[in-house]
Structure formats: structure tokens, C-alpha cells
Known about the structure:
Layout: H1 2-80
Amino acid sequence: MKNDLEEFKKLEKLALRKVRLQSIILGSAAVITVLFMIYGVTQKIEADRQSDLRYEIELTSQKEILILKEQLAQCQSEKNK
């Protein structure tokens, strides 16, 4: 009876140790997952910012091209006079 109780306590300690180890592993995986999620969100924000900046530059370039074309047409018409 005493041996059975000691055996039960040993098995209980072993099971508790396994559960603790699993908890540590799963907790670590959860922390790493959250860190990757934060990294992904910051990368998406940066990509969106870069995309907006590219769009603004493209619009500005197109406006400048139109202005230059108008100036060229005006210079050519003045030259032909």
C-alpha cells in the first residue's frame, strides 16, 4: 500500500513535469507567433506607405509631363510665328 502511494506520487510528479514542459513549449510558440504577427503588420503598414508614396510621385510626374508638353507646344507655336 505504501509502495503504491509512492509510485502514484512519482507518476503524478512525472505527469506534472510533462505538462509544465508542454506549457512552456506552447507558451513560447505563442509568443513567437505574436512577434511574427507584429512584424507582419508593421511590414504591411510600410508597404502601404510606400505604395501611397509611389502613387503620389506618379501623379506628380504625370502633371509635370503635361506641363512640359504644354510649354513645348507653346514654344513651337511661338517659333512658327
